[in-house]
Write a structure and sequence with these properties.
- This protein has 95 residues and is mainly alpha-helical.
- The chain contains four helices and three strands.
- The protein has helices spanning 11-16, 18-24, 46-76, 83-90, and strands spanning 8-10, 30-33, 40-43.
Amino acid sequence: MLTKIPKTIQSSELRKNLARYLKASDKAPVFVSKERGSGSSVLIGADIYNKLVGAYEEEMDEDEKKALIKGRRDFKKGNFLTIHEVRAKLGLASK
């Protein structure tokens, strides 16, 4: 589970030690402060990214499943909805 940001490095530090921070990002996110206080960025490894995307997709699939079940209930009541209408009603993007 991800927690609050433990440490932020400066972008100049990232440039100096890029290989080290790329390797570190495979184990945990690396937080990089942009220059001139314009916010920060997060550097993460591909495995962590894939886990985040997988979790997001599972959540979206669950939302879509709920929408389909609700659509089926509406269908049985005589309220006919297409999948596109159900997705639009719930704010789900079309796949």
